[in-house]
Amino acid sequence: MSVENNNAVSNNSPSGDGGSKTLFEKIWEKHVVKSIEGGPSVLYIDKHFIHEVTSPQAFKGLEKRGLKVYRPQQVVATADHNVPTLNQHLPIVEELSRIQVQTLKENCEKFGIELYGLGHPYQGIVHIIGPELGVTQPGMTIVCGDSHTSTHGAFGTIAFGIGTSEVEMVLATQCLMQSKPKLMRINVEGKLNNGVVSKDIILYIISKISSSGATGYAVEYAGSAIRNLSMEARMTICNMSIEMGARCGMIAPDETTFNYIKGRKFAPPLTPEGEQESPWDNALAYWKTLYSDDDAQFDVELNIQAEDIEPMITYGTNPGMGIGVTGHVPALDEIDVRDKPSYEKSLHYMGIEPGAKMKGKKVDYVFIGSCTNARIEDLRMVASFVKGKHKAHNVEVWVVPGSKQVEKQAIEEGINTIFEEAGFLLRQPGCSACLGMNEDKIPAGKYCISTSNRNFEGRQGPNARTFLASPLTAAAAAITGEVSDVRELMPQP
């Protein structure tokens, strides 16, 4: 991986004066309502996604001040974090989860916001339903009280997570105070190896620059390897931008983007019969201007060769602690002396020795889901690999679709039957075992190989131990009962 630091140039880049601009600058400048000299800007927000966890206090704040939601038609609500993924037709068992989901319903009714709650055909994880419904569109500013809002950046948007007080601010004004971040571009060139997918790309990047390596930056992903990815694969990469500290992640829209959006529920409509222009044509003309100009300047650029990436696996308690599946956990003498105490603490929690190999490590649970990897392509990928195989006897496998639409499609395509024959359990939509905020928790001390985005201590339940990996690597572990190199189990290309 090579690094170019362009600070001397970027700090004088022609931003806002008609000169060359990055994708981020083009969208940012179009949405600035007011700039404060030497301070933040007032930024207009196009779409605001909300869910049951970070919205109750915001609505309470509006009530205390006697305020309405300023533009309820620009707010999209769903229930995802606290919902059960079995028997969703029954009352929620966990009391706190039940209260939070019910409170969201009451607040949406009170403030005139449409809710895709349990039982609705559009219900699902907030960062999955936005794109699949065509709500997420290039050139937008998008926020949500959820750190993985950067997912939407795959469409060429500025999308980022906000805190509860900021959720209240956006509900009240449709604007937000924001400081402009520095700019980073990560170029991934070349062709991916067999068994390597987009989750491996982002885990590789984070392992190289650390879980704080992009702090203070908006990151644009570019290069031939990125352009060759599907939209769903691009979403996986942008989703985990926050895991290296980035404010947001984004990819310039192209024909792949436009073809994905076209015809979706809330996409701009196509040309009505007898008319020459349409909302779709007008939107498309704007979207095609959304790219970084050839001589646009970034503060930092990283260059990565796709051929250097192998299937990845994490071994520690942050997403930056990752290695190729054939590698070894760093020995203590490979760790900076300042980092040794936290490093040893992390490995002690995980029950892993310095210098150990991850390949062959036994696992107890496999979780395929989350806003990172619960789209239909992820389920198809896993189904294609496990068809005709059966899970190891010592492993429990949960496959959780990201939305009702994904669940419906999986059933229509017979993916659920393939999973059933393999001993996998296809559950109902929700955040599930990504985080210990619902009934789907990993028991204490057990190892879970997970397609989610975080492996912090207790993230999947008190004292649960998490290995992050791609859907293919997770599926391989489900079949073998241990961390495996999926390439050894796949037919050669």
Descriptive key words:
493 residues; 20 strands; alpha/beta; 5-stranded mixed sheet; Aconitase, domain 3
How would you characterize this protein structure?
With 493 residues, this protein is of the alpha/beta class. Among the domains are: 45-177, 2-Layer Sandwich (Aconitase, domain 3), CATH 3.30.499; 327-489, 2-Layer Sandwich (Aconitase, domain 3), CATH 3.30.499.10. It is 30% helix and 16% strand. It is built from 16 helices and 20 strands. It has helices at residues 7-10, 23-31, 56-65, 95-111, 126-132, 164-173, 198-209, 224-227, 231-239, 255-261, 279-287, 340-350, 376-386, 404-412, 415-422, 471-480, and strands at 2-5, 32-35, 41-44, 47-50, 75-78, 115-116, 141-144, 158-161, 175-178, 182-189, 217-222, 248-250, 300-305, 312-314, 322-324, 365-368, 396-399, 425-426, 447-450, 465-468. The strands form five sheets. A five-stranded mixed β-sheet has the order 1-13-10-11-12. Strands 6-5-4-7-8 form a five-stranded parallel β-sheet, sandwiched between helices. Helix 3 (56-65) crosses helix 6, helix 7 packs parallel to helix 9 and helix 13 (376-386) packs parallel to helix 16 (471-480). The protein is globular, with a radius of gyration of 22 Å. 53% of the residues are buried.
Q: Tell me the CATH superfamily of the domain at 327-489.
A: Aconitase, domain 3
Strand numbers in spatial order across the main sheet? 1-13-10-11-12
Beta-strand segment tally: 20
Poorly predicted runs: 7-16
| First-residue to last-residue Cα separation | 26 Å
* Relative helix content: 25-40%
CATH hierarchy class name of the domain at 327-489: Alpha Beta
Reported CATH architecture of the domain at 327-489: 2-Layer Sandwich
Alpha plus pi helix count = 16
